[in-house]
Amino acid sequence: MGDKTKTGAFNRKPVDKRFVHQVTSGQRGPNYWVPMDISDTECKIMEVRQFSASFFELDEKFRRPGLELISAYAVQNAFLWGQYLLRREQLKMQLTGTG
Predict the structure, then answer these.
(1) pTM of the full predicted structure?
(2) Nearest 5°: CA angle at 88, between 10 and 92?
(3) Which long-range contacts (CB under 8 A, 24 or more apart) does 46-53 make?
(4) In the chain, where does DSSP find H-type helix?
(5) Distances (CA, A) of 89 to 16, 23, 66, 78
(6) What is the number of helices (H) and of strands (E) in the chain?
(7) pLDDT in tens, 54-79
(8) Angle (CA) 25 15 32, round 5°
(9) Closest by CA position to 89, among listed 42, 23, 39, 6
(10) In this structure, are residues 37 and 5 in contact, taking their beta carbons and an 8 Å threshold?
C-alpha cells in the first residue's frame, strides 16, 4: 500500500505548537481574555454583555430583518488561538516570499 504514515485525525499534518506555548503562558493572548488555568480547563465560554461595544458590533454584523440578537458568547481557547497565530505567520511569510 505504500509507506505513507497517517498523522492525526483525517490524516492532517502534526500540529506545530510554537505559538500555543506562548499563548498558554500569557505572552500572546488577546488583552481582553480572562486569566484561566490551562491545566484545569481547555477553554472558557463567556457571555458577551448585552450593552457592550462587542455586542453591538456582533448585532450589526448579523442583523437580518425579523431577527433579534438575544445573547452572544465568546470562546476563549488558547490552543486554537495559538494555531491561528501560527497560520497567520505562515501566510505572512508566503506573501512576502520569505518562506
Answers:
(1) 0.57
(2) 125
(3) 46/73, 46/74, 46/76, 47/71, 47/72, 47/73, 47/74, 48/72, 48/73, 48/74
(4) 18-24, 53-62, 78-96
(5) 12, 14, 40, 16
(6) 3, 2
(7) 999 999 998 999 988 999 999 998 88
(8) 35
(9) 23
(10) no
